[in-house]
Design goal:
The structure holds 2 protein chains of 2 kinds. By secondary structure, chain A is an alpha/beta fold. In chain A, the strands form 2 sheets. Chain A has a 9-stranded mixed beta sheet with strand order 9-8-7-10-6-1-4-5-11, sandwiched between helices. A two-stranded antiparallel ribbon of chain A has the order 2-3. In chain A, helix 2 crosses helix 5. Chain B is of the alpha/beta class. In chain B, 29% of the residues lie in helices and 27% in strands. In chain B, the strands form 3 sheets. Chain B has a 7-stranded parallel beta sheet, with helices on both faces. Chains A and B meet through helix 3, helix 4, strand 7, strand 8 and strand 9 of A and helix 3, helix 4, strand 5, strand 7 and strand 8 of B. Strand 13 of chain A pairs parallel with strand 16 of chain B.
Chain lengths: 252, 328
C-alpha cells in the first residue's frame, strides 16, 4: 500500500475558468485538481491510500467532501485562526508538521495556486521534510517496492527518472474538470466527517504560524502603473476607430 | 560592506540575458550605498560569459566548479555554503524552474523572506528592500518587505528588468573559482532512465515581438480566429490571459503575465481584457498599450495609453475586413 498525500488549496470559484456553471463560492485550485485526478488514476492500478491535506477556513469543507467523492480516502483540513496570513515559509511549516503525523510515501502537489501564483510551496515543503522534489511531472509510469518512475518535462526533453520514495512530485498541468461523480459516493462522502486539525493538534509553535511566523509581509498595495500613463480615449464609429488602430499599427 | 547576490541559472548559456538583467538591477540597488554585487555562476563558464556579467555591474564573480546537471538540491547546497560565508543581505534568483527550486530551498533553510516573481525592487528610506509583485486577485501591486532579521530573497522572471548596458568603472573585478568538491550531493538522487526530445511544439516568440494583440475573456472564438489573421498580416503575435488558457481555448505558451511570459512589445493591443494585475505585470516594459473593452470601468483603462470603449467584436471585425481586403 502506497501512502499518497496530496496537498491542495481551495480558491475562490471566480478565479477558476470553467465552462460549466460554478456551484458554490469555492473550488479546488485547477492545478491541484489535475494532480488529484492523476493520483486517483494511479489508485486504479496500484493499491494506494490517498490523503488530501488542505489549509483553509472551515467553510471550504464542501470542496473536500467533493474530493472524497472523487476517490480520496481521507481529507484533513488544517484550520485555525493562528494559521491566517501565512506566507510560503509559515505555510510549509504548518503543512510539514501535519505530514509528519501521517504515513507518507509520496507527496503530490500542483505547480501553483491560481490566487497566489507563487509556486514556491512544494520545494519549501520538500526542504522541510528533507526530500527531493521533482517538478514539471507529466505522469507517473510505475510505482513499486518503494520506487517510483515518473516522466517530467525538461525544456525540449522528456526525462524518465526512477527515484526512491519518499519524494515530492509537482504536476505541471491543470484542469477544471472534476470528472463524473457518482451520487452514491457523494452521499457517502457527505456522511463521513472531514478531519479538522488545529495548531494544537499538529503541536505547532504559535510563534512560527500565520502572519507572526511569516518572513514577509505586505506593507501596502499600490496602483500598478509606475509610469504615470495619461489615457486618451479614442471615440467614433467602429470604422473610424479601426482606421485609427490601423494607423497606429502601421506607424509602429 | 553589504552584498547583493545574483544567482545565475545553472544553464547559463540559455539564460544569460536573464542573468544580465538581474545584475543590472542589482547594480542599480548599490547606488550611493556601501554595497557590492556578487554574481554566482555554475559549471562550464567561459571568460566571455564572465566579461558579460561584469560589464553589467558585477563587482565580484564567483564561478562554481561544480558537476553538470546536479539537480536543484545540489545547487542549493552550493548557494547555502556561499550564503553562510558571505551573509548577503539580498539574494536574487532567476525565475526559471531550477531557479525557483533553488530559491525556495535556500530560503527555507535560512528562514529567509522570499518574494516570488517580483517585478520591482527598491530600497526604502529605512534601508529596507521593498519588493513589488502582483497582488492576489486584484488590480493592485503588493509591496512586500521582509522581517529585519532574515536574508531577503526574490525570484525574477525574464524581461522584468532592462539590461542597462553600463560600461562601468568598477575597476578590476574580483573573480573567485569556488571548488565544489566538498559540496554534498543529497542521497536519494534520481536515476535518469531515458531522455527523449519532445516533438517540437509550436514556437511562439512573444518575448521579442514588437506588436502583440492581447486576447481576453471578452473575445469570442470566431473573433480569436480573426485576430490570428490580423496579427499575422501585421507581423505581430497574439497573447492571452490565464483565464483563456485554463479554459483550454489558448495554449500556455501564449499566456502573458505573472505565471506566464513577460513581454516588451512597442505596441500591445488588448481586446476584451479586464486588466487584473497578474496579467498587467507581464506588460511592465511595454511601449504603448491600447485597450479595447466595452466596460468603461475595466481596470485596464488605468494602465492603457489609449482607451477604446467599444464592443471588441465590432472593432476586430472592422480590422479583419480591412486586412482581408488588403490581402485580396
Amino acid at each position: 500500500m502506497i501512502n499518497v498525500v496530496v496537498c491542495v488549496k481551495v480558491v475562490s470559484a471566480n478565479l477558476i475558468g470553467r465552462k460549466e456553471k460554478v456551484d458554490g463560492i469555492y473550488g479546488l485550485n485547477p492545478y491541484d485538481m489535475y494532480a488529484l485526478n492523476k493520483v486517483i488514476e494511479l489508485k486504479k492500478k496500484v493499491p494506494c491510500k490517498i490523503t488530501c491535506l488542505c489549509m483553509g477556513k472551515e467553510d471550504v469543507k464542501d470542496v473536500l467532501v467533493h474530493c472524497k467523492a472523487m476517490g480520496v480516502d481521507e481529507a484533513i483540513l488544517l484550520s485555525d485562526r493562528l494559521f491566517s496570513g501565512s506566507d510560503t515559509y509559515a505555510t510549509t511549516y504548518t503543512l510539514a508538521l501535519a505530514i509528519k503525523k501521517l504515513n507518507y510515501d509520496l507527496i503530490v502537489c500542483g505547480c501553483e495556486a491560481v490566487d497566489g501564483e507563487t509556486g514556491q510551496v512544494p520545494y519549501s515543503l520538500a526542504q522541510r521534510l528533507e526530500l527531493t522534489c521533482i517538478p514539471n511531472v507529466e505522469d507517473i509510469d510505475t510505482i513499486m517496492d518503494q520506487e517510483i518512475q515518473v516522466r517530467y518535462e525538461d525544456g525540449e526533453y522528456m526525462n524518465t527518472v526512477a527515484g526512491k520514495l519518499p519524494l515530492v512530485i509537482i504536476f505541471k498541468n491543470f484542469t477544471t474538470k472534476t470528472g463524473k461523480i457518482n451520487l452514491l459516493k457523494l452521499k457517502r462522502a457527505q456522511s463521513s466527517p472531514i478531519i479538522v486539525w488545529s495548531a494544537k493538534d499538529i503541536e505547532a509553535e504559535p510563534d512560527l504560524l500565520g502572519q507572526v511566523g511569516s518572513k514577509t509581509k505586505v506593507c501596502h498595495a499600490v496602483n500598478i502603473s509606475n509610469k504615470k500613463r495619461e489615457i486618451s480615449y479614442i471615440e467614433g464609429s467602429s470604422s473610424e476607430v479601426s482606421n485609427w488602430l490601423e494607423k497606429v499599427i502601421q506607424e509602429n | 560592506m553589504k552584498y547583493i547576490f545574483v544567482i545565475a541559472d545553472p544553464n547559463f548559456k540559455e539564460n544569460s540575458k536573464a542573468c544580465t538583467e538581474l545584475v543590472s538591477k542589482a547594480y542599480e540597488l548599490t547606488n550611493n550605498r556601501d554595497a557590492k554585487v556578487v554574481t554566482i555562476l555554475f559549471g562550464d563558464i567561459s571568460e566571455e560569459d564572465i566579461c558579460e556579467v561584469v560589464k553589467y555591474g558585477s563587482h565580484k564573480v564567483i564561478v562554481c566548479n561544480c558537476k553538470e546537471n546536479g539537480g536543484y538540491r545540489y545547487y542549493s547546497n552550493i548557494v547555502n555554503v556561499l550564503c553562510s560565508r558571505e551573509q548577503p543581505e539580498l539574494v536574487i534568483f532567476p525565475g526559471t524552474i531550477v531557479g525557483k527550486g533553488i530559491a525556495s530551498t535556500v530560503a527555507t533553510k535560512f528562514g529567509g523572506g522570499l518574494t516570488a516573481e517580483c517585478i520591482d525592487i527598491k530600497v526604502d528610506g529605512k534601508e529596507r528592500y521593498c519588493f513589488s509583485r502582483a497582488a492576489m486577485n486584484s488590480s493592485m501591486i503588493a509591496q512586500i518587505v521582509c522581517n529585519e532579521d532574515c536574508i531577503q530573497m526574490c525570484t525574477v522572471k525574464l524581461n522584468v528588468f532592462q539590461k542597462t548596458g553600463y560600461q562601468l568603472e568598477l575597476g578590476e573585478p574580483e573573480i573567485e573559482y569556488f571548488d565544489c568538491a566538498d559540496i554534498s550531493e543529497n542521497e536519494n538522487v534520481l536515476n535518469l532512465i531515458k531522455r527523449e526530445k519532445v516533438e517540437q511544439k509550436e514556437q511562439v516568440d512573444l518575448e521579442n515581438k514588437q506588436l502583440i494583440f492581447g486576447i481576453g475573456r471578452g473575445v469570442s472564438k470566431e473573433d480569436i480566429d480573426k485576430i490570428k489573421v490580423i496579427s499575422k498580416f501585421y507581423n505581430g503575435e497574439y497573447g492571452t490571459t490565464r483565464y483563456l488558457v485554463e479554459e483550454g481555448i489558448m495554449k500556455k505558451n501564449r499566456q502573458v503575465g505573472q505565471s506566464g511570459i513577460n513581454v516588451c512589445p512597442k505596441l500591445y493591443i488588448a481586446f476584451g481584457i479586464s486588466g487584473a494585475s497578474q496579467h498587467m505585470v507581464g506588460l511592465k516594459n511595454t511601449g504603448k498599450i491600447v485597450a479595447v473593452n466595452s466596460d468603461k470601468n475595466a481596470p485596464i483603462f488605468k494602465y492603457a495609453d489609449y482607451g477604446i470603449i467599444a464592443d471588441s467584436h465590432e472593432i476586430i471585425d472592422c480590422l479583419y475586413k480591412k486586412v482581408i481586403g488588403d490581402i485580396i
